[in-house]
Design brief:
- The chain is mostly helical.
- It has one domain (about 5-155): Four Helix Bundle (Hemerythrin (Met), subunit A) (Up-down Bundle).
- It is built from six helices and no strands.
- The radius of gyration is 16 Å and the shape is globular.
- The protein starts with a helix and ends with a helix.
Length: about 160
């Protein structure tokens, strides 16, 4: 298995299928059982589950654009600018969009030539494709952990 195929598998596990020690610890499994009320409920000063999911997807969409040959247009200051979600249908649509983006991103990483991992990611100041893929994994796992904890806190309320 090539390095990019290994990275693609790790991304797929993170977003869609992974299980750690018998738990359903992947983004899809964690979001699938969250209803609109829980998604929008703020626990003290923490972000909402919906906002964290939006944030993860914001970066997914931005990096996908680069992988498709486009420019890096995302900005940190906009990464939490989520429009209000006011219906279960809107929440479901948002989740489905995240899952489609994750599947597509995994596909793009699988197809990427391994030699591209050492290429600059749009600009040398952003490091290499490899660095950015590792960063995407770390960033998304961090926020997945927040989602897991917020769910536990909200269920314990």
């Amino acid at each position: 298995m090539t390095l990019n195929e290994q990275l693609a598998k790790q991304l797929k596990d993170l977003f869609l299928t992974g299980q750690w020690i018998g738990t359903n610890l992947n983004l899809k499994a964690q979001l699938d059982d969250v209803n609109l009320e829980m998604a929008n409920t703020r626990y003290e000063s923490l972000n909402t589950i919906a906002l964290l999911a939006f944030h993860i997807n914001y970066y997914l969409e931005g990096v996908i654009n680069v992988f498709k040959g486009g420019t890096l247009d995302i900005k940190d200051k906009y990464s939490y600018d989520m429009p209000p979600i006011s219906s279960e249908e809107e929440w479901k649509t948002m989740r489905d969009n995240i899952y489609r983006n994750a599947e597509y991103f995994v596909y793009l990483v699988e197809l990427m030539p391994t030699s591209k991992l050492n290429d600059p990611f749009t600009d040398e100041k952003y490091g290499t494709y490899f660095k950015n893929l590792i960063g995407m994994l770390e960033h998304s796992y961090y926020h997945l952990g927040q989602i897991v904890l917020i769910k536990k806190l909200l269920k314990g309320k």
